[in-house]
Specification:
It contains 21 helices and 12 strands. The chain is globular, with a radius of gyration of 22 Å. The chain is an alpha+beta fold and about 475 residues long. The chain has helices at about 15-40, 45-70, 70-85, 90-105, 115-125, 130, 170-175, 180-190, 195-210, 210-225, 255-260, 265-285, 320-335, 335-345, 360-370, 370-375, 385-395, 400-405, 410-430, 435-445, 450-460, and strands at about 130-135, 140, 145-155, 160-165, 230-235, 245-250, 290, 300, 305-310, 315, 380, 435.
């Protein structure tokens, strides 16, 4: 989440208005793409490459402007697309596009406090003063479906109050009906997007995100699972003040992501390792993970712990699924192409009867997308590293694109892949350095701790047993 803009901007909620906005965007993009294609007939190969990059930057800017003003599912699609393709452009184009993508990821148009107050008082059934001793009227953060305020309860606790935009549920329902158009728009910015898998995830996750009581339940589960962890902190939920449209949690004091980026290399390394451990261990050790490693959802606290703040997009996975995932990684890391191919085709990641899908190609692609934590060496995650990995994760510029086009991601892997890509993007923004392979081996192979942070949390995870995740938390 990001600091909210004080200016109030209207949000179209009806399907007709929202369809018109998106339809105009898609039509304009298609016309420009056709013009570029026609012009390419007389361009050199280098000229076509430059034109393609320019069109992608222009597309991102237009998508940011239209989808960002719409909030709801429209903005969520744009956020997802921006992260999937962040860093995948060449360096000279990446810098130009970054600011526009940041607008979509990190800020949303603000709604007046007067309107947001009505939502709070309607849901809680009383005036604001009945529940809060103090309530700051300026929102401290804004996201795709709500804003966050800082307040103090009568018992003295500082809290964060997340409030859903009035009318956003109608906007989301309209967007879900228009999801095909939205994804066509987003695909202009992220050409490698799997539209079918994305459609499934957006529908499921956004429906859950609309219900803050569901998010409160997920948040409580994470707080219980990580309670007492030495360097991960999940603020407690104030359950009695949570409703469908209002979510109240204890306030986590700390510095934001932009300040973290200015810290020393060792401090950024520690922060990066904490983020890596939290998101990957949530999946592979706990069996309940967040699919939204958004930079606005982190706070680095004075005592060195990192507070994780948003659990609107999570998934629980059975122990059997995680064990099978771990087995796939072990096969790939050992270089067993034939067994890896058999396992992935059995799980229907790839068609078993396609001559283009061979064990060698499957292994090569797997090695490419996991290189940053497959190779046993210290790696600094920088822009070049992020760009190379994200291209190989889902971009037509990758040499593995013919294979990727034939792949089908199951729902669990769709959100997990998104989590991994966004975690990588976060690490790249702080340029974190570590031997990520040695860290990952702790949960992949049950190896002893590889770092000081690993030793600090060893006792915490001892209750789960070596490399075996817990049952999903209820």
């Amino acid at each position: 989440m990001a600091r909210a803009d004080r200016a109030d901007k209207s949000m179209p909620t009806g399907r007709v208005r929202r369809t018109a906005k998106v339809g105009s965007l898609v039509g304009g993009q298609a016309a420009r793409a056709y013009a570029t294609k026609a012009a390419n007939l007389t361009r050199s190969e280098e000229g076509r490459r430059v034109a393609a990059e320019r069109r992608q930057v222009e597309a991102a800017e237009q998508i940011v402007e239209v989808l960002g003003s719409m909030k709801g599912a429209a903005m969520k699609v744009g956020q997802v697309a921006s992260f999937i393709d962040t860093g995948a452009l060449p360096p000279e184009a990446s810098e130009r596009i970054q600011q526009k993508l940041a607008e979509l990821r990190d800020s949303a148009p603000s709604v007046s406090f007067r309107d947001m107050r009505k939502v709070i008082e309607h849901d809680l059934g009383d005036k604001l003063s009945e529940h809060f001793a103090e309530f700051e009227e300026d929102a401290v953060a804004a996201a795709s479906i709500g804003q966050v305020y800082r307040a103090r309860l009568h018992d003295g606790r500082e809290v964060a109050v997340k409030v859903q935009y009035p009318g956003v549920s109608s906007a989301v329902r309209a967007d879900l009906q228009n999801l095909g158009l939205l994804l066509r728009a987003a695909k202009r910015m992220a050409p490698g997007m799997d539209v079918k898998a994305m459609s499934t995830e957006v529908r499921e996750r956004l429906t859950e995100e609309l219900d803050y009581e569901h998010e409160a339940q997920s948040h409580r589960a994470f707080a219980r699972a990580w309670k007492g962890h030495p360097f991960v902190y999940i603020p407690d939920v104030v359950t009695e003040l949570c409703t469908e449209h209002v979510l109240v949690t204890e306030w986590a004091e700390g510095i934001g992501f932009e300040e973290v980026r200015t810290l020393t290399q060792p401090e950024r390394d520690r922060f990066g390792e904490t983020v890596f451990r939290f998101f990957f261990e949530s999946l592979y050790r706990v069996g309940h993970f967040s699919g939204d490693p958004h930079p606005g959802n982190f706070r680095l606290m004075d005592d060195g712990r990192v507070a994780f703040l948003d659990f609107g997009m999570t998934r629980k996975v059975p122990r059997e699924w995680v064990e099978r995932e771990l087995a796939i990684f072990r096969l790939a890391f050992s270089g067993d192409a034939d067994e890896l191919y058999r396992e992935l085709t059995a799980m229907r990641f790839y068609p078993a009867d396609d001559p283009e899908v061979t064990p060698e190609r499957v292994l090569a692609h797997f090695e490419a997308v996991t290189a940053w934590y497959r190779e046993d060496r210290e790696i600094t995650i920088d822009g070049d590293c992020v760009r190379e990995i994200l291209i190989d994760m889902g971009d037509m510029r990758s040499e593995h694109w013919p294979l990727m086009r034939r792949a089908t991601l199951p729902p669990e892997r769709m959100l997990a892949t998104r989590m991994e890509a966004l975690t990588l993007a976060v690490l790249g923004q702080v340029e974190a350095r570590a031997n990520w392979h040695r860290i990952a081996r702790e949960w992949l192979f049950g190896d002893p701790p590889a770092t000081e942070l690993g030793r600090e949390e060893e006792g915490f995870f001892a209750r789960l047993g070596p490399s075996r995740p817990a049952e999903p938390i209820a």
